[in-house]
Amino acid sequence: MFFISLRADRLSKTYGSGLLSMGKCIFQEVSFEIRPGKTFGLMGPSGEGKSTLGRVIAGLEKATTGSVYYKGTLLTGMEKIEKIAFRRKVQIMFQDPTDAFNPRKKIGHSIFEVLALLRVPEGKYASKTEEVLITAGLPEEVLSRYPSQLSGGQLQRLALSRILLLDPEYIVLDEPTSALDVSVQAQILHMLKKVQTERNTGYLLISHDEAVIRFMSDSYGVLENGQLKIIE
Predict the structure, then answer these.
(1) Which are the contacts of 204, defined by CB distance < 8 A and separation ≥ 6?
(2) 16-70 pLDDT tens trace
């Protein structure tokens, strides 16, 4: 499966290393694979480096040693055009949905910004925006609102729907429900399941909640004391 997957191979991350210091080891020799249409869960205590590992997988941060492979291609060996494609195909959904939107801009403007980056013709903005709203299950009126006027659940559904405009193959889900009420958490998890079934999207799900991990994941690992223990 390595040739179609997103794979971590013996990743290690150390902060503050140098001539006079060995630095702090966040995680060491971590390996796992995320397959299309499947979820790999990553759980463990707070402060163990789960979010850092997620950013490394998404290409937002570099590992100290080890490699990330996307469909068999080494991330650090990619040409510029390949890296641009990778950043579009491997997205990250953060814990706090308010971080996904500019508080000074209305929701509609935030969606239009993504469409502009994708070079979607302006004549198709309306249909693409409608697509986002349908996926999020929200009315058109939210487009004229600011992020502060919406609930956390509404913002998280919009954040995921906007990510889907990029047609990602993999999404790093960094504690996507921990900032939400329990009833809203269930809505987001079922939305993620639905998206995965329809689009064959692979997820790296980061959570400290074992119930969420077990509900969502095909396999998972526990990151603790810098080591990852895989549990099939």
Answers:
(1) 6, 34, 39, 40, 42, 54, 57, 170, 171, 172, 173
(2) 755 555 668 899 999 999 999 999 999 998 888 999 999 999 999 999 999 999 9
Q: Encoding tokens for residue 128?
A: 């693409």
Domains of the chain and CATH, by start = 6-231 (3.40.50.300)
Q: What are residue 102's phi and psi, to 5 degrees? A: -75, 120
CA atoms within 13 A on the CB side of 24: 7
Structure tokens at 112: 């239009």
In the numeric block, the tokens 């402060």 are attached to 47
